[in-house]
Amino acid sequence: MADAALFIGFGITLSGRERRALSVLDEALRYYAGLQQAGELESFEPVLLEPHGGDLGGFILLRGEPAKLDRIRRSAEFQRLTTRAGLVAERIGVVSAYVGEELRVQLGRFEAELQDLAS
After folding, report:
1. Are the C-beta atoms of 5 and 98 separated by less than 8 Å?
2. Residue 65 contacts by C-beta under 8 Å, 6 or more apart in sequence?
3. What is the pLDDT of residue 2?
4. Domain spanning 4-118 has what CATH number?
5. Chain mean pLDDT for the chain
6. Across residues 2-26, what is the average pLDDT?
7. Longest CA span, the chain
8. 3-state secondary structure of 48
9. Closest by CA position to 95, among listed 73, 111, 77, 110
10. b/e per residue, 6-20, with b = 16+ CB within 10 A?
11. Of 67, 56, 54, whose CA–CA distance to 96 is shortest?
């Protein structure tokens, strides 16, 4: 199981761009499916949130090896899709994330620093 992920968050669609937003989302999901088939991604999961009054409308979590995720994030196609998404939805954000065993490593580091600062 992957220990690294990319969190791609997005807000609500811009007024008048709803159909375009669906098209861009479909385009992105087809791209990620192709990357998964090619072995560049371990998995991806799109999530839409119910209306809740917050800024986050949904996200896509890409899971994979850190080097492959880094390569994907810097690719021209990923950058193109991120730019397109920013033209049809609010608050597009891409953030590296820790999952799997790396999550435990990060929490262990946090605990160690917390104890060190408490002494």
Report:
1. yes
2. 2, 4, 42
3. 85
4. 3.30.70.100
5. 96
6. 96
7. 56
8. strand
9. 73
10. bebbbebbeeeeeee
11. 67
- Which amino acid does the sequence have at 52? H
pTM of the predicted model, to two decimals? 0.91
**Contacts of 7 by beta carbon, 8 Å cutoff, 6+ apart:** 59, 60, 61, 93, 94, 95, 96, 97
CB 63 within 8 A of CB 99: yes
Retrieve residue 88's tokens: 């049809």
Q: How is the chain split into domains, by residue range?
A: 4-118
pLDDT, tens digit, for every residue of 30-77?
999 999 999 999 999 999 999 999 999 999 999 999 999 999 999 999
